[in-house]
Design brief:
The protein is an all-alpha fold. It has one domain. About 80% of the residues lie in helices and about 0% in strands.
Length: about 100
Amino acid sequence: MIIATNFLIALYTLLMSIAVIASLKMLPFWLVCINIISITVLGASLFWPILICIALVMLVLNAGINGKVLHGKLTFSHLIIRILFSLLIFALFLISK
């Protein structure tokens, strides 16, 4: 179970990194920094599991802020998917402990 959890964390980290790189020209500098910090905390949670909760909350909040900045509104379907994916990772994390 821990392999699946670590895989999903690594996948989420990779996908968020790609998304930030793709949106560099559209995001303000402060939001790029917040995204990079969140991605770093998520990646670090592979080594320090205590960070997993902080990282997942940060990334869900980032999804809302990114949507508001990029599209002028919250995209609830995207936010719901991100919340569900975060809950899946957290549930797998708890089960693997």
